[in-house]
Amino acid sequence: MKFKKCSALILSILLVFGLAACSSNGGNGKNNAAAPANQSSEAGGNNQSDATAQSEELKPEGGAKLIVWDGKDGVPFLKEYAKKFTEEYGVPVEVQEQGAPEQMQKMKTDGPAGLAADVLVLPHDNLSEAVAGGFVLPNDFFEEETKAEFQETAVNAVTKDGILYGYPRNMETYALFYNKDLVKDSDLASWDDIVKFAKGYNDVSKKKFGFMMQLNNFYFTYPFFSGYHGYIFGKDNTDPADIGLNNEGSVEAMKYFQSLREILPMEAADATTDVKTALFQEGKLAINLDGVWNIGNFSSLPFKVGMVPLPKFPNGETPTTFAGVKAYYVSAYSKYPNAAKLFARYMTSKDALLKNFEMSGFIPARKGMENEPAIKNNPMVGGAIQQFEHSVAMPSIFEMQQVWAPMANALELIWKGEDSKKTLDNAVKSIKEGIATLHK
């Protein structure tokens, strides 16, 4: 079985894929009337003062102070832009580095203890778990503005059971970054071409590699499964009783994945984000499979960087990547929910998202930003948009959280040379056991 691909592509440069977890536009906001579908992208204004004017009715609590959690790639922007929020509202903000998995785990313990963040940054596939755990509050006060100003599919991604929870920030997927001084377009035409190039470029003794990717992270290895007709859950990722990660296609996918050790002779655990990024920035890694959030990081290197979608596999199939929406969420445990809602709104203004793109490469989920010069003129954005055409949303059902760890373990073993079929069978068994515990 193959995932259902979206057909509504390139509605704008910012959103070119549909999300499998789309839901209704209802909510618990101050007015439940849905925003018109053709609402102008200018609704809500073009600058920070307009965003502030819209929030005049909502005031931060007296003595409010906020803690905000985000992953490593989002922290630099937050630390800089939070100062502007503090200047405008008089609310101190402390930004702490916490990845999404750590945030979800800490909410279970630190939330009830009053130690958790007031604002979280999470990918859309964590929303089901966050809602089930009672971790997040609805985006109620700014519901109308959010629906009017952000792409419909982004709004749907952060909506659960008809209730809008998130404040959409950016769209994500991944593709191939490459050093234009080292790599020709013809070297990227197919995976066979990538392998051929890497064989000629590699010099492991000097830490020079033609190609590198995170090898034990299912998020990045999913294209191998999709390119060989493997799948996660049946019925377009809505049926956890049907798991396709050990079907015939998945086994073939992992055999091909395993063969790439010839051009990347290192342990899976050693191909970390930090190692890979450093090698690429130093000009020692020529082709880097990584996320579009690195566009900002790679825009000021001493060499020109290009970005292209993943090419076809030897079987002639075009791989599909995961895509997602990251958003701000207000913690249900926050002592200062008004201040937290204001912060989430402030950080998703046009000015804030533009600054975030310039610093981090995050492609905004807000309407009408495709013509901003910083976005329009970036040579990497085009490749990202092309990859969005061949992307599907990460499964957002609660059971997806049981997939990551068993698959990470399986990928490490397969990369070491273990039998693909046996290893995937064991991984699926572990996934099923994990899912079973959720329903006890």
Describe the overall structure.
This is Extracellular solute-binding protein. Residues 1-26 form the signal peptide. Keywords: Signal, Transport. Belongs to the bacterial solute-binding protein 1 family. It holds the Pfam family SBP_bac_8. The protein has 440 residues and is of the alpha/beta class. It folds into two domains: 48-172 and 325-393, 3-Layer(aba) Sandwich (D-Maltodextrin-Binding Protein, domain 2); 174-322 and 396-438, Periplasmic binding protein-like II (D-Maltodextrin-Binding Protein, domain 2, 3-Layer(aba) Sandwich), CATH 3.40.190.10. Helix content is 37%, strand content 15%. The chain is built from 17 helices and 14 strands. The protein has helices at residues 48-54, 75-89, 100-110, 127-132, 143-149, 152-157, 191-201, 218-227, 234-237, 248-259, 273-281, 337-346, 350-360, 373-376, 381-388, 404-416, 420-438, and strands spanning 66-70, 93-97, 119-123, 159-160, 163-164, 167-172, 174-179, 209-212, 239-243, 285-291, 305-308, 321-330, 363-364, 391-393. The strands form four sheets. Strands 3, 6, 12, 13 and 14 form a five-stranded mixed β-sheet that branches. Strands 8-10-7-11 form a four-stranded mixed β-sheet. α8 (218-227) crosses α10 (248-259) and α10 packs across α16. The protein is globular.
For the terminal residues, how far apart are their CA atoms?
A: 29 Å
CATH topology of the largest domain: D-Maltodextrin-Binding Protein, domain 2
Which of globular, elongated, flat, extended, rod-shaped describes the shape?
Answer: globular
What is the CATH architecture annotation of the largest domain? 3-Layer(aba) Sandwich
